[in-house]
Amino acid sequence: NKKGFIFDLDGVIVDTAKYHFLAWQNLAKSIDIDFTHEQNEQLKGVSRVKSLEKILEWGNKTISEELFTSLMGKKNEEYLSFIAKMTDEEILPDVPRVLDYLIEKAQPISLGSASKNARPILEKVHLLSKFNAIVDGNDVSKAKPNPEVFLIAAQHLNMKPEDCIVFEDSVAGVQAANTANMISIGIGEKEVLHEADYIFSDFTEIENSFIEELINR
Ligand code: BG6
Ligand code: MG
């Protein structure tokens, strides 16, 4: 039995959601826009361009194309400065255990992330070699909640969408998985991720026996 296991990156594999938040918050402040935790929740899983568009919309601001490009660059620069200091300790709890269990069971594994920084981050925390395929922000034209990223991942794994399982921490990502006709597993808060087929607060709650059940579904 084989299923395709697709993992989001930020907030699922590594604890980078906090760095995205800090970088967006600093950027918003620099153009006099208040940026709240609830708003940040809506930016999880959302591409860099779309995120800035939303922040400007919330702040009722229109800016030139040039400033837009330079702000995006600035955000990513600050984000990358946080990433540069990352260590393996920022891999979220029990993620390696689940990845290794899937590898032991010969299950195909793909990344399905909106980030354009996915490869360097996975390299930095020494997880890149665990993946059979990497699909990230460089490969897609339609951002989550559009299912494109997960559908491409399924293709790379040679699996039908209905035989794929997606781990996601964002509302947009859960919606993308559901639209792709995949099983969605929300990692985070029940109240936020209620559209997911299953919800766990983190991977420590996901037992090998549950993974086994998913494989044999
Ligand atoms: C997603 C994050 O994984 O990637 C978003 O949840 C982020 O917060 C998006 O905006 C794009 O990432 P990056 O690294 O290309 O700016
Ligand atoms: Mg995420």
TrEMBL record:
One of its GO terms (molecular function) is beta-phosphoglucomutase activity. Belongs to the HAD-like hydrolase superfamily. CbbY/CbbZ/Gph/YieH family. Pfam families: Hydrolase. Keywords: Isomerase. CDD domains: HAD_BPGM (cd02598). SUPFAM superfamilies: HAD-like. This is Beta-phosphoglucomutase. InterPro entries: B-phosphoglucomutase_hydrolase (IPR010976), Beta-PGM (IPR010972), HAD-like_sf (IPR036412), HAD-like_SPP (IPR051806), HAD-SF_hydro_IA (IPR006439), HAD_sf (IPR023214), PGP-like_dom2 (IPR023198). Its EC number is 5.4.2.6. Coiled coil: none annotated. It comes from Olleya marilimosa.
